[in-house]
Amino acid sequence: MGRRQPSKGEAGEDHVRGFLLGSFQDLDKTQPGSPVDWTCHGLKCARESSQIYREPTLHFLVQVKGFETFPKHIPVCHATFIYWLQHCETHPVFLLLVREVRPNLQEYLFLCFHDWLLTSYGQKAICNRASSVLLELKHFTKIDDYANNLHLKLLEEADRALQISGSPWATLRDFGLFPFDEALFQEYMELASFAELPRHLFKMLSKEGVRSVPIFTRHLLENKGDVDQLLEDWVKTLLSLAPPPSQTSFQRRQFLEFIKIMTNFRKGLPLPPLPPFRLAEVNCWRAIVAMYPHVIEMLKHVICHSKRQNDIMFVSAMLPMLALSSDRVISHRAFEAISLLSEKRDLSSSYAFRRELYRGPAEAGDEHSLKKAIAVLKSRGSAEEELSFLDSYGWTIDVIRSNLDRKLRTPTIRDEPLKPFYLTMSELLLERNDVI
Question: 70 and 99 in contact (C-beta within 8 Å)?
Fold first, then answer.
């Protein structure tokens, strides 16, 4: 490229400017000390192309480090790491390393920050409150001679950030069920499975518009400003239920299992069994599915190909999270998947299976399934079977009354279609002396 060798510790912008202009129409240099060195927009359809890909205003954030020899670890200060984390959902973040091999020849490596976040290393860094994060050189990819591998990744990230259908890690950004954007979800993942919003609290959080919900939620979690007592009590309850952030927390282990299953699906590899149909696993995965809606294709694959009763029940519990979305495309795709469940009802005659294959679609608002679910509840001998099912699920006998009371008095969006179902449960179970 005929550019000078950067001095030791220099970011190497002179080298990388022309390199980035091969992929972007425009570059803006940031101020020294900023969390990124360049903001780039006008992503090209291909390297050196004159055509712009999709949305010309989509900004990429690029940090550049120049070295004489690549080190094994690249330190990133905690404040910079948090900035990247809180922006990468909608503004893809890339790290470039550059070194001079010889005059007129540079070697480049890149790391897609969002991809890295979805690994155990990224999860560990999120939970680490140290002053800096160490990125390992082995996680960077060498850029090929024509930078085609980098450009393909830039296109993938554009699709993700723009929520293009088919991008597996595109987020839903529908805050009616869970009030988290992706950064909040990643930072407070241990809270996620407990944070489904009651309808009345969603109305309070969205008073300045739905897009403001995660902003207000962050203020609540970080004790910024005065808040309504109801919201303050809700946050206190969340914090009392959730464990502290940890790489080994149940929620992050479930998230990494989700990533593994999705990766297998994308590669056409056999899928392992889905998690057990238990309260902790179901609630955790509901939060994950509500964040990454393009899991729908994987869930449809499970419906069509799995013969495991647990898998089908688990999928049935996931789909209402997306069917109730305000995103019409996602909702339609979820209902298409729900329609496939009817073909699986002969897979098992067990009480739990029949209950859940009707309750799931009923939760999504299907009235026919609601009537069938209530009929299952009212069938002969169902009280004992219902108690046995609830116990195995995680609703032990000592919490049934309080759980039903919560769902009827402070319902979430997905509780509302099931109100007749929960009323029937109350009639069936709460007159019993053994139910507290």
Answer: yes
